[in-house]
């Protein structure tokens, strides 16, 4: 369920090239769907999950999720959140250099542009102030850096069963040989499947899965030590070192602008 702060309607039919809306969301989940337009989703507060047939993405506060037009996806919000969604005409702005789906780091300028464009009328004219504002946003989006907040999924049933085991327990420390045995495959087979279908070794995939689990928990202000242990690390220091390797900074700096309490309305 969500409360829109913008006129509702079908954004794919809007006259303007870039339109949007801001939503205050209670926990909800959408079915698989797609839009003709590209989407840029920005989380002001809360965490958004997105899934396609190819993988999963997590959107913490102060980042943005890009979804190319025509890509089928499902969104999940597990706790209260506030998000802004922009719909961008893919004929006029093809964004061919962008991945079909990705999370990007958002600069302070882009954050303010997203907030402003999400509240624009859906029928502004070319050459208007609103039009020029949207053009600045488009130019800025093209310069944003990617954030490693995606998790490509294998397609083989045996590898997917390993994925499910780790989803049930992100801190699972069982070696690959034992996990492979539980799904009726050899460790070599599972390693080969992950490398072929996710472009990551099994160890690298497991590490990224743990990090994404941790990012969501930390985004809600949970204790670093507790999150580290639940993610399978022996100490907070080893977790912080691993976090820095992946994200280039410590958890406290990564979330220094935004922290979302689970109790916020």
Automatic annotation (TrEMBL):
Pfam families: AraC_binding, HTH_18
Coiled-coil intervals: none
Swiss-Prot/TrEMBL keywords: Activator, DNA-binding, Repressor, Transcription, Transcription regulation
Single GO molecular function: sequence-specific DNA binding
Origin: domain of life: Bacteria
Keyword hit for Transcription regulation: yes
SMART domains the record matches: HTH_ARAC
Annotated HTH araC/xylS-type domain residues: 160-257
PROSITE patterns in the cross-refs: HTH_ARAC_FAMILY_1, HTH_ARAC_FAMILY_2
Signal peptide: none
Gene3D superfamilies associated with the record: Homeodomain-like
Stated name of the protein: Arabinose operon regulatory protein
Species of provenance: Salmonella enterica (Salmonella choleraesuis)
């Amino acid at each position: 369920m969500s409360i829109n702060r913008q006129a509702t309607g079908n954004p794919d039919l809007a006259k303007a090239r870039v339109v949007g809306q801001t939503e205050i969301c209670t926990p909800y989940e959408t079915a698989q769907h797609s839009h003709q337009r590209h989407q840029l989703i920005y989380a002001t507060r809360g965490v958004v999950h997105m899934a396609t047939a190819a993988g999963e993405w997590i959107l913490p506060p102060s980042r943005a999720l890009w979804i190319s037009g025509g890509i089928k996806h499902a969104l999940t919000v597990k706790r209260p959140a506030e998000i802004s969604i922009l719909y961008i005409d893919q004929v006029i702005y093809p964004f061919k250099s962008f991945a079909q789906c990705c999370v990007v780091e958002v600069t302070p300028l882009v954050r303010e542009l997203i907030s402003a464009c999400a509240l624009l009328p859906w029928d502004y004219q070319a050459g208007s102030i609103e039009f020029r504002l949207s053009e600045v946003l488009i130019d800025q989006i093209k310069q944003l850096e990617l954030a490693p907040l995606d998790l490509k999924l294998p397609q083989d049933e045996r590898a997917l069963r390993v994925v499910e085991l780790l989803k049930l327990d992100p801190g699972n420390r069982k070696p690959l040989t034992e996990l492979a045995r539980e799904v009726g495959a050899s460790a070599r087979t599972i390693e080969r499947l992950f490398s072929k279908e996710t472009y990551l070794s099994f160890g690298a995939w497991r590490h990224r899965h743990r990090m994404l689990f941790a990012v969501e928990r930390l985004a809600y202000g949970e204790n670093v030590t507790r999150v580290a242990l639940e993610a399978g690390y022996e100490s907070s220091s080893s977790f912080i070192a691993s976090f820095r390797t992946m994200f280039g900074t410590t958890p406290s700096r990564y979330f220094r602008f935004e922290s979302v309490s689970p109790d916020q309305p």
